[in-house]
């Protein structure tokens, strides 16, 4: 018996069938076909593993439960719940981010909002910029300009930062950890997409002082 | 300026939109992930626990994967890592191979076989127990390779990407796993001397 014929027959054996006499004799003398046979049998065993489905509502419940859990943030981004009340609305700016094609048109909503919080005893403020976008943008440009007494955490020597990012239709949240030193200063946030440019200027003060 | 590329990760959807996006991105993969979890754990209860824990972890790590075009490899890597962690914890407290064995014999684990004869059922159950025994004999890290490649059908390249393993290492580990599984699954039911006695007794 040729190996190619033997392997063709072996492929059709299930777990309950034994090779016939000729095939068995070939397997005794051919390591290649024996290995093929064993691999095939192993594959049949593994394929026989039956997966029992989850309870009918399991997937929905599990997805919802996952969203209920508070997100674990890196330590440097967290602040005590007791300080949540210390939110201070710093600035509110309306820009032509939504439907307007004319940069001078007023907006029907508040597409760009800024607020900040400062954990007790720390000089870092979490500045949150909410951008409401009418559609997905793949290459929105965000720029920051920091006055002398402000520093973006991790970028101590950068006074101006520009990067490109994606915006999703709806609400997009940009959280910046800004270190406020001495008297504080002015944070300028700009965005650009296509012909439209928008800018927010925020005065940040050290709330501890 | 290359340092600034990481800033792009700082912009993210607000909480309500994040929840909607999270569910929309994860839901298409949820059944497949549960199926993999079942093959890793071997029973429904542990698979549901593992899947639930995975969803929690994925929500917490949203910023790490939401920008990926195809997050499935990321999901699978998280799933297998969670399973390995669980396996190690259980082994540490109870000893190896106790993940599922306590429940293997329970009737609700036996899938319904249409028009199966009692003999076919017995054989199926016997094979199922043997298969569970063989899979449980593998370390969790090795079982995940077997599940992904031999049971779920991911290519070697895909498994290497999911597990962050060099292809050569993956192949050698899979080879060892297959040898171990074959020794359990393909062993002769009777020792050689017993087999000879049975044939002799028939001839007599």
TrEMBL record, chain A:
It comes from Marinospirillum celere. Keywords: Membrane, Transmembrane, Transmembrane helix. This is Uncharacterized protein. The chain crosses the membrane at residues 77-99.
Automatic annotation (TrEMBL), chain B:
GO terms for biological process: DNA-templated transcription initiation. InterPro entries: RNA_pol_sigma-70-like, RNA_pol_sigma-70_dom, RNA_pol_sigma70_r2, RNA_pol_sigma70_r4_t2, RNA_pol_sigma_r2, RNA_pol_sigma_r3/r4-like, WH-like_DNA-bd_sf. One of its GO terms (molecular function) is sigma factor activity. Residues 27-91 form the RNA polymerase sigma-70 region domain. Keywords: Sigma factor, Transcription, Transcription regulation. The keyword Transcription applies. The keyword Transferase does not apply. Pfam families: Sigma70_r2, Sigma70_r4_2. Residues 131-181 form the RNA polymerase sigma factor 70 region 4 type domain. Gene3D superfamilies: 1.10.1740.10, Winged helix-like DNA-binding domain superfamily/Winged helix DNA-binding domain. PANTHER family: RNA POLYMERASE ECF-TYPE SIGMA FACTO (PTHR43133), RNA POLYMERASE SIGMA FACTOR RFAY-RELATED (PTHR43133:SF25). Belongs to the sigma-70 factor family. ECF subfamily. This is RNA polymerase sigma-70 factor, ECF subfamily. It comes from Marinospirillum celere. The lineage of its organism: Bacteria, Pseudomonadati, Pseudomonadota, Gammaproteobacteria, Oceanospirillales.
